[in-house]
Structure formats: structure tokens, C-alpha cells
Structure prediction request, 115 residues.
Amino acid sequence: MRLEAFKFGVYLIIPISASLTFNDPRVQEWAANYFQFLKYPANPNTNLKEEFEEILKKKQEDKEQRRLYAEQIQKLQDSAKASRLEIAATANATDIGGSKRGWFSWLRFRRGNES
Prediction:
């Protein structure tokens, strides 16, 4: 019975205290400023069409910069791949006559001869 009375008291006290607290104009002003419920333009005489055009132009410039960056990255990846293939080709050319050593050559295991 006591637990039920406690729960009922909490059920009533929380909304009543919230109503009393947020009824104060200073608290309402603080909450509106803190959570920024309303955003006004910087200047009421601002031409919104020009502002939207500036934003659109900036987005297009950013998109172009991202495209150029992606092209540069692709060129770098292609050149890195070409150099890896070149290194592998030279390694294969020099190792054709010799014995191939694996990762575990330090254990003295050889391919085909595990004794």
C-alpha cells in the first residue's frame, strides 16, 4: 500500500512541479534561448533568393572540389597499383631460377620437402 501511495505521489508531483517551474517567464526565455526554438534571419531585409543562390553556389563548388579530390585519389591508387605490379614483376623475374622462400622459411620448411 505504501509503494502505491509513493508511486501516485510521484505521478502527481512531477507534472505539477514541471508546470510551476516552466510557467516562469525567465525560465521560458532561458529554454527558448538555450534550445533555440526559433531561428530568425540575421537581417530582416535580407533577400532570401540571393541567400539561397549563394548557398547553392557554395554547394556546387564543394561538389566540384570533392569530384576533383576523388579523381586525384584514383590517380594515386592507379599509380600505386602500377608500382606494385612492377615490383612484383621484377621480383618474379629475378626469382625464376632461384628457390622460392615462403613466410615460414625461418623454420627451415620448404615446399614439397617437409622433413
